Structures are given as C-alpha cells and as structure tokens.
Write a sequence for this structure.
C-alpha cells in the first residue's frame, strides 16, 4: 500500500502524462506549457515533490468582464490574445481589430470594461511530502531570485517572481462593440519589445532554477552525486521537437496503462 | 527570562514605537505608513505574532538605474514620484518636468533607462511564533483574497494581493537629461483615475483583513470573545489625526522607557 503522498503524486503524474491537445486539463489553455516540461519532469523525479500547476510565462491581452469589481475575470471577461511563445508576440496587434486614437472612457473605471496588456512570469506550484522538503524548495527558489515565493497549506510551495507588465491599453466601446485603443500602434510595438526582454529574463531565471533544483535532486539521491554520475533518465534541456515527441510517447504509454487498469 | 520570540518581538515593538520623522527606519520612506498602523497594532496585540515590515499600497513613478538588468533598482535608479495617499496623486504629473510626445527609444530596452508608473497594493510581513500560528494567519489572509500570500522561513508570513499596475511611460533622454514621456498627459490622468479605484479596492481589502484578524485575535483571547466584550485597549479604525497623536504619545513614552533602561 502506497502512502497518501505517493498515491496523490501517482494520480497527478497520470494526469500530466495523459494531458495533450486531445485531452485538455482545466486550465484556460488546456495543456501544460512546453517550456515548463523539463522542470516539471525534474521536480517529479524527486520522491518528495510533485508539480500541481504551472505557467511558463506569457503575454496576454485581456478584456475585463462585466462584474462590478476591479479586473473582473468572470462574466464575459475574455482573452483577446494570449501566448507563451516569444516568437508569437510578433505583430500580435495587427491581428486584433483595434480602433486607434480613441478617447478615454469618461465614466468611472468600474463602469467600463477595460483592456489590459499583461506580461506574467513563470509560476510553479509544487506539493511537497513534508515541511522539510517545502522549506528547502522555498529557500532554493528564493536564492534564485524568486522573491515572491511562499509556502501555503499542506506543504504546497508557490514559486513566483515579480517580472511583470500590467498596462491599460483600451476599453470595449459599448456603442460600436469595438475594441477602442487609446495608445498607438507604436506603443504596442514598444510594449512587445519590452515583453521580449522580460521573456528572456524569465527563461534565464527558469534555467537558473532548473540548475539549482537539479543540484538539489542530485544531492538527495546520495551525497556527492554530480552531473557526471547522475542517473541517465534525469531530464535535461531538450528541443521543442524532442519534448513533443517524448510527451507524445509518454502520453500514449500512460493511456495504454490506464486502459489496462 | 523571556523566550527568544518574545525578546525579538519586544525589540521590534521598540523600533516601531520609536519610529517617526525624527527617527527614520531603513525603508526608502523611513516611516511606517499611517494606513498600516491600525492593523500593525492589532497584529502585535497577539502574543504569537509581530509585524516586521509593511507597505499600505502606493503609486510610484520610477526611473530605472544603469545596471544591465531588467527594472534595475541599484545604480542611480530613483523615484521620480511616490505616495501612499490617494489624495496626493492628484495632478502629480504636473509636478514632473516631462517632455511629452517623445519618440520611443530605438536601442534595445536594456540600454535605456525606462520610466515606469506603478500601483502596488498592501503588503505585510508578519513573524509568527510557531507553525500553527503562521498556518492560521496564512489561511486567514487567503480567505480574504490575498491570494499571493505565503509562508517563508522561520514562520514569516507574507500577505500579498495582486492589485497592480506596471506601465512603461517614458525613458531618460541621455542627450538632454530630460524625462522623455511617450504617453500623453491624458493617459497619465487616466492611469491616475484607475489607481484611485485600485486604492479604494486596496483599502477595502485591508479593512476586510483587519476584521478577520480582529476576530482571530479575539478568538485567541478565549472562546466567545466578541466586539462587545473585547479588551478596551484593542485598536480600532481611527482618523489620521488620532493616529498621529497616539503614535506621538506612544513614541515619547517608549523613548522615555528606553532612556531609563
């Protein structure tokens, strides 16, 4: 009989392996960000940790909902644009039917459905077996500069960093039904450039975190484990294509196993 | 002999009481934000908690430093404007010598010292005596919507919420030494309006947190303590003038005590 943590971990790993474009999870995107896969596999290779959610960092343009509160996410709030891939940010605003040169909404902000441009950095949630492991993972994340990390209930560690942009760029013109934009195309282009810098910094920090966790996992295996003698099945950085192929194989294998169960 | 937590707490309380415009602390502003004082006193009235740092929420305009990294805070980075008071945001941009209508910097963002407009919400750090207290405070903060809260090392709880704005508005023109602004005055006015809404939401959440902690503190005193029978010296919401007067009295008293020691 497995202990409760290991049972829970097995269940999560099954879900991760089965996840794919034909088997979406509950997140808005429905699949795990590819940039997160190496660190997810690394963390899950440790017997006392399991990843429960992740976002590798993203650019999004969000139309607020109709609810009477700030940055309303419910009630018809919707993503106008979202990507986790730096390359896909190129000229994104040319694909949106913005009405440039719009005036600013005259009513109070609460009455208007604003449009926000956001850059959000990597966030990882990791469930740990015990207090010691959660404390170690927390300290490790902090030492890599993930200064907004914290431990929650039941040894769940949130790994967070404050690389961000949060910029009002327009609003929904209720008369025309169009996206009114009160900043120019040149400003949107500049925001996109800044976001590319932030993506770069974000991935640099992700790599730093990966390396630190790799060292931690190696140390947990037994004293003195180094990159020379680490287990061969430990995940390393891989190309997008390699990741895709591996994930597909793993998913098929897992689904086969689930079917057999 | 006091236990280590109580010793540490007494030391922090002395520093808080002695803090004032003629006795600055290590923070950029040098004094504790007045909006935080009621909740600081409330938290510190609990024997197992002590506040270690706080910001009640603020609007700031920041010129990045010269270091070769994102949003550099060192190397000549400086605040162009900062306030914790909603009323003081009024027409703030008229006090800054902006050059409007500037072009965007052509070089990579790393080479340019950007100017960022920020709204940051309440943040509180609370050191707790033990794991149980930190877990309870964490859960309480999460239930009030402070969803980015977390427990750090040594039972330190960070209480955080994601109400924010983070907007690039200009850069330092190295040729003229002036603050080049690539958004218009009307946009800055709109940002300021949005910030006032965020301040309102921020103080609403602060009040909600205060009420929840008050209930928790009352519960810790003994079962069944209600607002009718709570101790008379428990702090409640007070006006700016009342707060100022009380703090002055407490500070004088504390300094008198320190002198006698």
């Amino acid at each position: 009989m497995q202990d409760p943590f290991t049972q829970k971990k097995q269940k999560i790993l099954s879900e991760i392996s089965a996840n794919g474009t034909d088997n979406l999870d509950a997140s808005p995107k429905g699949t795990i960000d590819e940039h997160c896969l190496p660190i997810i596999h690394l963390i899950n290779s440790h017997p006392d940790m399991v990843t429960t959610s992740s976002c590798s960092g993203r650019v999004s343009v969000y139309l607020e909902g109709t609810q009477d509160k700030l940055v309303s996410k419910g009630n018809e709030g919707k993503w106008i644009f979202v990507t986790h891939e730096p390359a896909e940010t190129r000229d994104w605003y040319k694909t949106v039917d913005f009405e440039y040169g719009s005036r600013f909404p005259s009513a109070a902000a609460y009455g208007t459905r604003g449009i926000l441009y956001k850059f959000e950095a990597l966030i990882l949630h990791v469930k740990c077996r015990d207090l010691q492991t959660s404390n170690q993972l927390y300290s490790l994340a902090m030492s890599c500069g993930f200064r907004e990390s914290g431990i929650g209930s039941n040894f769940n560690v949130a790994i967070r960093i404050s690389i961000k942009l949060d910029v009002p760029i327009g609003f929904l013109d209720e008369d025309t039904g169009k996206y009114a934009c009160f900043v120019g195309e040149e400003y949107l282009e500049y925001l996109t450039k800044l976001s590319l810098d932030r993506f770069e910094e974000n991935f640099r920090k992700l790599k730093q975190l990966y390396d630190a966790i790799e060292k931690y996992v190696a140390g947990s295996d037994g004293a003195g484990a180094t990159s020379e003698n680490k287990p061969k099945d430990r995940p390393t950085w891989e190309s997008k294509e390699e990741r895709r192929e591996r994930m597909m194989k793993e998913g098929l294998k897992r689904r086969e196993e689930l079917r057999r169960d």
Q: What stands out?
A: Strands of chain B lie at 49-55, 58-63, 78-83, 98-100, 114-120, 123-128, 150-151, 156-160, 164-173, 178-181. Confidence is low (pLDDT under 50) at residues 222-236 of chain B. The CA atoms of residues 148 and 175 of chain B lie 41 Å apart. The first strand of chain B starts at residue 49 and ends at 55.
